[in-house]
Amino acid sequence: MSDDLLKELRLGRDQREDDETPRRWPWIVGVVVLLMLIGAGAAVWALRGSAIEVEAATATPISAGGAANAVLQATGYVVARRQATVSAQIVGTLTEVLIEEADHVDQGQVLARLDDSAQLARLNAAKAAAAAAHAQLGQVRAQLNQAEQDLTRQEALVARHLVSRQAAEQARTEVATLKAQLKAQQEQAKAADAQIAVAQVDYDYTVVRAPFAGVITQKAAQVGEIIAPSAAGGGFTRTGVGTIVDMDSLEVDVDVNEAYIGRVKPGMPVEAVLDAYPDWTIPAHVIAIVPTADRGKATVKVRIALEKKDPRIIPEMGVRVSFLEQVADQAGARAPAGVLVPASAVVERDGKPVVFIIDGDHARRAPVSTGGNRSGYTEVTAGLAAGTRVVKAPPATLEDGAAVRIKSTAAGG
Fold first, then answer.
1. CA atoms of 383 and 367, how far apart (whole Å)
2. Which of 83, 210, 340, 376 is the Cys-Cys partner for 105 at CB 3.0 to 4.6 Å?
3. Beta-sheet strands, E only, within 246-351
4. b/e string for 188-226 if b means 16 or more Cβ within 10 A?
């Protein structure tokens, strides 16, 4: 009886599946949504990871003038022909320092002040001594005037035989003596005035001024420090307030191997490229070849003038220069058209020269027409506009429309 009841309570296979099916649907839907999200994330990550890291370069217009080819390349540094470490000409304690690095200053502008109490006291003493000397000069002049009047009266009395000739001679001697005293006192007054000038110069030395207009590149002293000329410095004494550089005097010094110095001529054109801005070409020319050689390095120094002034050019920057052999233009010839790009930016695809233009996050292939090469750059005469950013060295795997990621480098000009 009990076995029959238990058999009646058991559920059949079909009946159990029908009851569990509604419970499975939420789990199935959840799993599907989760798999879709994971797949979408994996696709985004794959796309992001597939972006090719590249270097960018900017197409620059070809400068007007005849065709130029590099005959020699060298490296050097930007230097300032006019710079000075400004100091005081006397020993003193700084009471004011009015400069900071990167400040632009004008010629004669006050940079610092020293304690001037001693110099001011000497100046006032010199002025007082000069005032006393001039007062004595006035006294002697008055005495001489009186003596001359007395001599005139004595000579009149002698002529009338009212006094002896000895009285007139004494009056004449008094006049001569006072004239000598007057001359001596005049010289003493001049000496006193000169002492004022000396004291004034010493007093002016307590104010440190800019010898020329420029930019402060180093602040070397603070208020309360003792400053002195280099010859008088010692211990913890500062020998300068700061360094000032005339940025208009910047030029490039390069060392050229003496075996190739014959290729360099004064006035020849040069292209300079700063290490900090490899995509920026600066026009320049040779100023002079310094007439001495470095026997240790077997080089000769060449001075190069930069024809373009720019705030990005600062002293001690590394520079690569290309000496160009300039070919004169014919009369009425037009300036060359086109742009310059790094030679590595032009590659062959299907047997034709192309560049890859950077368009947002993608690289777009563009066919171009090329001209000659000049110092690591290729002339692109058609197919590319000035200012367009291109891939500097496209890898062989780079295709049209491929995702790219710009490698972070210093900004170029």
1. 6
2. 210
3. 250-257, 269-274, 281-294, 299-306, 318-326, 339-342, 347-349
4. bbeebeebbeebeebbebbebebebbbbbbebbbeeeeb
pTM tops 0.70: no
Instruction: Report how far residue 57's alpha carbon sits from residue 61's, in angstroms, rounded to the nearest whole number.
Output: 13
**Residue carrying the six token digits 């009646």:** 8
Give me the long-range contacts of 98-102 (CB less than 8 A, separation at least 24).
99/216, 99/219, 99/241, 99/242, 100/216, 100/219, 101/216, 101/217, 101/218, 101/219, 102/215, 102/216, 102/217
What tens digit of pLDDT does each residue of 271-324 get? 999 999 988 889 999 999 999 999 999 999 999 999 888 999 999 999 999 998
Bridge partners (DSSP) of residue 84 are: 244
pLDDT tens for 248-275 read 999 999 999 999 999 999 999 999 999 9
Question: Could you tell me if 243 and 85 are in contact, meaning their C-beta atoms sit under 8 angstroms apart?
Answer: yes
Q: How far is CA 364 from CA 47, 357, 361, 388, 400, in A?
A: 17, 5, 10, 12, 5
